[in-house]
Fold this protein.
Amino acid sequence: MEYTVQMVADYLQGEVEGDGSRVLKGFGKIEEAKEGELTFLSNPAYTRYIYTTGATAVLVNRDFVPEHPVNAALIRVDNPYEALARLLHLVEGEKSVPAGIHSLAFVEEGATLGKDVYIGPYAVVEKRTVLGDGVRIYPHVFIGEGVRIGEGTVIYPGVKIYHDCVIGKNCIIHAGSVIGADGFGFAPTGEEYEKIPQIGIVEMEDNVEVGANVTIDRATIGRTLIKKGVKIDNLIMIGHNVEVGERTVMAAQTGIAGSTKIGKDCMFGGQVGISGHLRVADGVKIAAKTGVPGNIKQENEILEGIPAMPIRTFQRSVVYFRKFPELVKRIDELEKKIAELEK
């Protein structure tokens, strides 16, 4: 990357305040950025750093009014965070893209490969698999028999995709994730548990991104379905026959038990736990560490706590919980006074 401040502003349809001829060669966090780097300010909590940052330029809102002199050039845009994302996509697109089938890759006869496919060393692609145009399979990936992967999808090192699963177009699956392992299905038979064969699949629609070390189990019967635009963070567990609606996002260490149906446009914080066979309405937001034992029927509800409750109710409850030892002491004292009065 090497652009002038003015070139960046023109690309973003922004306005420069300061020296537009200065050169940008990279990105940095506002509190750590150095000369030659571009940073951004979107969260007011970081405003103090704009006066001390070493960055050459800062993306800011059009209506930002500095309270002190700023050494960096300002690039005024409608949304700094969105503008940064556009720039990062631009820079990412400049990187060279690997191509071709490495001599150490193993592709079985009967696999169908589209145009411009990349398969890295020690990757395995089994028979009946179909890879769309521009698919990239990085080293040590295993693609099982009969898997279908749509065009433009990127599978990073160490991913395992079990047989017959379906991955859509322009998806990203990060290192170490396992798609299509058996669901957790066992039937008690007295002193033992008999394994129930998991004969379904995982289907992932277009534009889904899966973080590192995620596990998405195949269905017992039918499919575990991840709908288009879903974004899944690292270290997330999605059980068999779960359905995740369009554009839902989940932060790390969330777990969803089998057969639960999640609506579209939901947002889950880290370490959310959702029991099995539940329904979660569209647009629901669940704060970190919340446990959900029952259906959530109201759309766009915001929940927190164990068990999950409306966030304001939880916050009021926490106030009382913090005072719990004091309240117990007061109750004990009142009980003693009542006992004395009764005597």
Observations:
- DSSP finds four helices and 40 strands in the chain.
- The chain has three domains: 3-94, 100-314, 317-343.
